[in-house]
């Protein structure tokens, strides 16, 4: 399955997303500064899965949120199909950003506890009224089916769903806006291992079916090796290594990458077998 | 990796879990709690009395008959309306209480409702947006808190005409900070939650987030606080009337009745005790009910009332 992902062409029609010099500095009290992301540059092509790996605190999540302007980047540009998200006013940002959606790490926190599945999935259409389907309930059922959920879940509350099911609902909610780019912030790390595989498989199927581009934030190297076309290794806010997945895993250049690889028990085994 | 991505479909969610929700669930729990049931029964009775009876008995309630002055209770010699005795001007105590119920409940309920709505809205906005708006609003709330509400009410009602409307406004204004603080504290916490970020990611603006994400989460707390506040506003209103600046005759409420009976306390206890008793019982009932409501609506305490839905375990 891993080889299948790697064989997919890297580019079809030029980059969907071009990130240049993206930087985020948090201002603390008394002028203290924390550089969370120190200038990230990368492009994301259609149908590609770019993984960003690194230890916790390396700035991966801040990068993901800055790309979507969920937190305001300090400097840099995020160009989606010719439109720079940085500097857009609220209205324009809302219109452009619907093509870039985010899946959050913890599905227990990212779904509103008092809304039903129907409400959760249809809510984005209340914001983007032009996307509101003629029969929203039917469309929600369709989306649920697409993410492998039974239609009977439509009136359930998140509390009645398992973690895997909740993450499927999050995915359906994002898909309802017909995005090109999904930013996946550790999408399965809060789930049981057996469920992780199911959700990852679903994500990979959806990517193929819909031609989505993924910005995949993760600390799970085994997972990254499986899904990513290219990998960026992040350490203290900087990309210390960036290249095709096989390259990074087989001939790691940076010291930090090697340390990271050897620290992963699953990969240590992989390595000796290959 | 031969795991089917549609694996979740294999386990269907049991349909029964979505059956009992909202009001029906609350009712179901209520039937299993004696103190809450009795409290709500008493409050319901009062509301019914306040709505139905006053127009029918108002004239009789205010008819003075000096020959029946301070008539002792528990005697039917002068008809059932004198079962609770008569006050210093020979007015039937029972009918006075009935008319007073309407005024007291009207004042308490309106003041609480006005304060809750305003405090809820301002608190949400203040907590969500933060910044200088929050600073200013909270300082105003601080100032309002340091002024004793009774004193403020005294001053305002002394300047304005004492009337039911003014009494409601004064009581409402003095109670706004209570809701404001509660709503603000929750909004402060909720705005950092991931589901808010998720709403922002799908394009929701601030007002939509306030309306659809925050408000439904804060509302149950506000409702509980409001219930609790009914008791204290009731007491505050009674206190103001007792001091003689709340209402003026011919309007009557429980506090005024207590005040009227004070000179006769040594000789005719019933003129004071019956309205006092009604005040105590009502405040107690409101307190008990709000306590129960808070526990019943808290998911972490819900197990005390009913079995949780079992779906989570079954559906993986």
UniProtKB/TrEMBL annotation, chain A:
What Pfam families does UniProt report for this protein, alphabetically?
ABC_tran
Q: What is this protein called?
A: ABC transporter ATP-binding protein
Q: Which InterPro entries match?
A: AAA+_ATPase, ABC_transp_ATP-bind, ABC_transporter-like_ATP-bd, ABC_transporter-like_CS, P-loop_NTPase
Bilayer-crossing regions:
none
Organism listed in the record? Amnibacterium flavum
Q: Which UniProt keywords apply?
A: ATP-binding, Nucleotide-binding, Transport
What does the similarity note say? Belongs to the ABC transporter superfamily.
Domain of life of the source = Bacteria
- Domain ABC transporter intervals: 17-261
> Which Gene Ontology BP annotations are present?
transmembrane transport
**GO molecular function (one):** ATP binding
Automatic annotation (TrEMBL), chain B:
Q: Membrane topology type, per the record?
A: Multi-pass membrane protein
Which residue range or ranges hold the ABC transmembrane type-1 domain? 101-290
Main subcellular location: membrane
List, alphabetically, the Gene3D superfamilies matched: MetI-like (1.10.3720.10)
Localized where? Cell membrane
Q: What is this protein called?
A: ABC transporter permease
Q: Which family does it belong to?
A: Belongs to the binding-protein-dependent transport system permease family.
| Any one of the GO BP annotations | transmembrane transport
The record lists the membrane-crossing segments as: 36-57, 105-130, 150-174, 226-247, 267-289
Report whether Heme shows up as a keyword of the record. no
Which lineage?
Bacteria, Bacillati, Actinomycetota, Actinomycetes, Micrococcales
Q: What keywords are annotated for this sequence in UniProt?
A: Cell membrane, Membrane, Transmembrane, Transmembrane helix, Transport
Q: Which GO CC terms are listed, alphabetically?
A: plasma membrane
